[in-house]
Amino acid sequence: DGGITQSPKYLFRKEGQNVTLSCEQNLNHDAMYWYRQDPGQGLRLIYYSQIVNDFQKGDIAEGYSVSREKKESFPLTVTSAQKNPTAFYLCASTLTGVSPLHFGNGTRLTVT
Amino acid sequence: AQTVTQSQPEMSVQEAETVTLSCTYDTSESDYYLFWYKQPPSRQMILVIRQEAYKQQNATENRFSVNFQKAAKSFSLKISDSQLGDAAMYFCAYRRGIGETSGSRLTFGEGTQLTVNP
Fold it and tell me: By CB atoms within 10 Å of each CB, which of B16, B47, B66, B80 scores lowest?
Protein backbone atom coordinates (compact mmCIF):
# COMPACT_ATOMS: atom_id res chain seq x y z
CA ASP A 1 0.00 0.00 0.00
CA GLY A 2 1.17 3.51 -0.75
CA GLY A 3 1.82 5.91 2.05
CA ILE A 4 4.17 8.12 4.00
CA THR A 5 6.57 6.61 6.49
CA GLN A 6 8.11 8.63 9.27
CA SER A 7 10.74 7.13 11.49
CA PRO A 8 11.34 6.76 14.29
CA LYS A 9 8.05 7.25 16.12
CA TYR A 10 9.83 8.52 19.24
CA LEU A 11 13.24 10.17 19.31
CA PHE A 12 15.28 11.36 22.26
CA ARG A 13 18.34 13.59 22.06
CA LYS A 14 20.55 15.62 24.31
CA GLU A 15 20.59 19.37 23.98
CA GLY A 16 23.25 20.56 21.55
CA GLN A 17 23.03 17.56 19.24
CA ASN A 18 21.70 17.67 15.71
CA VAL A 19 19.07 15.08 14.87
CA THR A 20 17.56 13.99 11.56
CA LEU A 21 13.95 12.90 11.14
CA SER A 22 13.17 10.60 8.24
CA CYS A 23 10.24 10.94 5.84
CA GLU A 24 9.72 8.58 2.89
CA GLN A 25 6.74 8.38 0.53
CA ASN A 26 5.87 5.88 -2.20
CA LEU A 27 2.87 7.80 -3.51
CA ASN A 28 4.84 9.37 -6.37
CA HIS A 29 3.92 12.76 -4.98
CA ASP A 30 5.81 15.80 -6.17
CA ALA A 31 5.51 18.06 -3.14
CA MET A 32 6.53 17.30 0.42
CA TYR A 33 6.16 19.27 3.65
CA TRP A 34 7.32 19.35 7.24
CA TYR A 35 5.02 20.64 9.96
CA ARG A 36 5.62 21.12 13.65
CA GLN A 37 2.81 20.62 16.15
CA ASP A 38 2.82 22.08 19.64
CA PRO A 39 -0.07 21.95 22.12
CA GLY A 40 -2.62 24.69 21.48
CA GLN A 41 -0.85 26.02 18.39
CA GLY A 42 -2.02 23.81 15.57
CA LEU A 43 0.43 22.87 12.84
CA ARG A 44 3.09 25.26 11.64
CA LEU A 45 5.01 24.87 8.38
CA ILE A 46 8.78 24.43 8.67
CA TYR A 47 9.92 23.67 5.10
CA TYR A 48 8.42 22.44 1.88
CA SER A 49 9.65 21.13 -1.44
CA GLN A 50 7.79 21.04 -4.74
CA ILE A 51 10.48 19.32 -6.77
CA VAL A 52 13.71 17.40 -6.30
CA ASN A 53 16.73 19.53 -5.38
CA ASP A 54 14.54 22.51 -4.50
CA PHE A 55 12.89 23.58 -1.24
CA GLN A 56 11.52 26.70 0.43
CA LYS A 57 11.34 27.98 3.97
CA GLY A 58 8.02 27.91 5.72
CA ASP A 59 6.91 30.02 8.65
CA ILE A 60 9.30 28.66 11.29
CA ALA A 61 12.42 27.49 9.40
CA GLU A 62 15.02 28.87 11.81
CA GLY A 63 17.06 26.08 13.38
CA TYR A 64 15.99 23.50 10.82
CA SER A 65 17.44 22.24 7.53
CA VAL A 66 16.17 19.89 4.82
CA SER A 67 17.30 18.17 1.64
CA ARG A 68 15.42 16.73 -1.32
CA GLU A 69 17.85 14.56 -3.24
CA LYS A 70 15.21 12.01 -4.20
CA LYS A 71 11.53 12.42 -4.97
CA GLU A 72 10.63 9.87 -2.32
CA SER A 73 12.61 11.33 0.57
CA PHE A 74 12.53 14.62 2.47
CA PRO A 75 14.59 14.37 5.69
CA LEU A 76 14.45 17.12 8.29
CA THR A 77 17.44 18.00 10.46
CA VAL A 78 16.79 19.73 13.75
CA THR A 79 19.97 21.59 14.55
CA SER A 80 21.34 22.76 17.87
CA ALA A 81 20.30 26.28 16.84
CA GLN A 82 16.63 25.41 17.29
CA LYS A 83 15.79 26.93 20.68
CA ASN A 84 12.86 24.72 21.59
CA PRO A 85 13.02 21.53 19.52
CA THR A 86 10.81 19.30 21.66
CA ALA A 87 7.63 18.83 19.61
CA PHE A 88 5.64 16.51 17.38
CA TYR A 89 6.77 16.61 13.76
CA LEU A 90 4.54 15.69 10.84
CA CYS A 91 5.59 15.07 7.27
CA ALA A 92 3.11 15.37 4.42
CA SER A 93 3.01 15.05 0.66
CA THR A 94 0.74 15.83 -2.26
CA LEU A 95 0.54 15.84 -6.00
CA THR A 96 0.75 19.36 -7.31
CA GLY A 97 -2.52 21.10 -7.99
CA VAL A 98 -5.63 20.68 -5.91
CA SER A 99 -4.91 17.35 -4.23
CA PRO A 100 -5.17 17.32 -0.44
CA LEU A 101 -2.19 16.62 1.79
CA HIS A 102 -1.45 13.09 2.93
CA PHE A 103 0.28 12.88 6.31
CA GLY A 104 2.67 10.46 7.91
CA ASN A 105 2.18 9.20 11.47
CA GLY A 106 4.60 11.70 12.94
CA THR A 107 7.74 11.67 15.07
CA ARG A 108 7.74 12.82 18.67
CA LEU A 109 11.10 14.47 19.40
CA THR A 110 12.18 15.07 22.97
CA VAL A 111 15.34 17.04 23.67
CA THR A 112 16.67 17.22 27.21
CA ALA B 1 -0.89 36.62 5.42
CA GLN B 2 -3.73 34.20 5.75
CA THR B 3 -4.91 33.29 9.23
CA VAL B 4 -7.29 30.61 10.43
CA THR B 5 -9.07 30.87 13.78
CA GLN B 6 -10.88 28.20 15.72
CA SER B 7 -12.47 29.88 18.71
CA GLN B 8 -13.54 26.69 20.50
CA PRO B 9 -10.57 24.91 22.12
CA GLU B 10 -12.88 22.18 23.41
CA MET B 11 -16.34 20.90 22.57
CA SER B 12 -18.39 17.97 23.77
CA VAL B 13 -21.42 16.15 22.38
CA GLN B 14 -23.60 13.25 23.38
CA GLU B 15 -23.42 10.16 21.25
CA ALA B 16 -25.98 10.30 18.39
CA GLU B 17 -26.37 14.07 18.74
CA THR B 18 -25.19 16.80 16.38
CA VAL B 19 -22.31 19.19 16.99
CA THR B 20 -20.95 22.15 15.05
CA LEU B 21 -17.32 23.24 15.13
CA SER B 22 -16.52 26.81 14.15
CA CYS B 23 -13.78 28.18 11.94
CA THR B 24 -13.12 31.63 10.55
CA TYR B 25 -10.34 32.70 8.23
CA ASP B 26 -8.86 35.86 6.88
CA THR B 27 -7.74 36.21 3.29
CA SER B 28 -7.69 38.69 0.45
CA GLU B 29 -7.72 35.90 -2.13
CA SER B 30 -10.82 34.95 -4.10
CA ASP B 31 -9.62 31.49 -5.11
CA TYR B 32 -8.82 29.10 -2.27
CA TYR B 33 -9.65 25.80 -0.62
CA LEU B 34 -10.75 24.97 2.90
CA PHE B 35 -10.33 21.69 4.73
CA TRP B 36 -11.25 19.97 7.95
CA TYR B 37 -8.76 17.43 9.27
CA LYS B 38 -9.30 15.04 12.14
CA GLN B 39 -6.49 13.95 14.47
CA PRO B 40 -7.46 11.06 16.76
CA PRO B 41 -5.28 9.98 19.70
CA SER B 42 -3.07 8.05 17.27
CA ARG B 43 -2.11 11.54 15.96
CA GLN B 44 -2.64 10.49 12.35
CA MET B 45 -4.04 13.43 10.36
CA ILE B 46 -7.13 12.35 8.44
CA LEU B 47 -8.89 14.48 5.85
CA VAL B 48 -12.57 14.82 6.75
CA ILE B 49 -13.93 17.17 4.12
CA ARG B 50 -12.86 19.92 1.74
CA GLN B 51 -14.54 22.89 0.11
CA GLU B 52 -13.58 24.83 -2.99
CA ALA B 53 -14.25 28.53 -2.55
CA TYR B 54 -15.70 28.88 -6.06
CA LYS B 55 -18.42 26.34 -5.26
CA GLN B 56 -21.54 27.73 -3.62
CA GLN B 57 -22.82 24.32 -2.63
CA ASN B 58 -21.71 23.15 0.79
CA ALA B 59 -19.61 20.00 0.80
CA THR B 60 -20.98 16.84 2.43
CA GLU B 61 -19.31 13.55 3.30
CA ASN B 62 -21.68 11.10 4.96
CA ARG B 63 -22.31 12.43 8.50
CA PHE B 64 -20.01 15.41 7.99
CA SER B 65 -21.10 18.61 6.31
CA VAL B 66 -19.90 22.18 6.20
CA ASN B 67 -21.56 25.56 6.29
CA PHE B 68 -19.41 27.72 4.03
CA GLN B 69 -20.16 31.43 4.23
CA LYS B 70 -17.69 33.09 1.86
CA ALA B 71 -18.67 36.67 2.56
CA ALA B 72 -18.39 36.12 6.28
CA LYS B 73 -15.21 34.02 5.84
CA SER B 74 -16.71 31.28 7.94
CA PHE B 75 -16.34 27.53 7.49
CA SER B 76 -18.04 25.46 10.17
CA LEU B 77 -18.15 21.67 10.39
CA LYS B 78 -21.32 19.86 11.39
CA ILE B 79 -21.11 16.28 12.62
CA SER B 80 -24.44 14.49 12.68
CA ASP B 81 -25.25 11.33 14.64
CA SER B 82 -21.98 11.65 16.55
CA GLN B 83 -20.13 8.43 17.26
CA LEU B 84 -17.53 7.57 19.86
CA GLY B 85 -14.99 7.26 17.07
CA ASP B 86 -15.49 10.91 16.18
CA ALA B 87 -13.65 11.93 19.33
CA ALA B 88 -10.52 13.70 18.16
CA MET B 89 -8.82 17.02 17.61
CA TYR B 90 -10.29 18.77 14.59
CA PHE B 91 -8.29 21.26 12.56
CA CYS B 92 -9.57 23.74 10.04
CA ALA B 93 -7.10 24.55 7.26
CA TYR B 94 -6.79 27.03 4.38
CA ARG B 95 -4.94 26.74 1.09
CA ARG B 96 -4.54 29.31 -1.61
CA GLY B 97 -5.91 28.51 -5.04
CA ILE B 98 -4.43 26.67 -7.97
CA GLY B 99 -1.72 28.59 -9.73
CA GLU B 100 -0.33 29.92 -6.49
CA THR B 101 3.40 29.31 -6.51
CA SER B 102 3.93 28.02 -3.00
CA GLY B 103 2.45 24.65 -3.72
CA SER B 104 -0.27 23.17 -1.59
CA ARG B 105 0.91 24.55 1.74
CA LEU B 106 -1.82 24.66 4.33
CA THR B 107 -2.41 27.19 7.08
CA PHE B 108 -4.01 25.54 10.11
CA GLY B 109 -6.17 26.76 12.94
CA GLU B 110 -5.35 25.95 16.55
CA GLY B 111 -7.70 23.00 16.69
CA THR B 112 -10.85 22.00 18.59
CA GLN B 113 -10.76 18.98 20.87
CA LEU B 114 -14.05 17.10 20.51
CA THR B 115 -15.24 14.74 23.22
CA VAL B 116 -18.10 12.35 22.53
CA ASN B 117 -19.97 11.22 25.62
CA PRO B 118 -21.71 7.82 25.62
Answer: B16
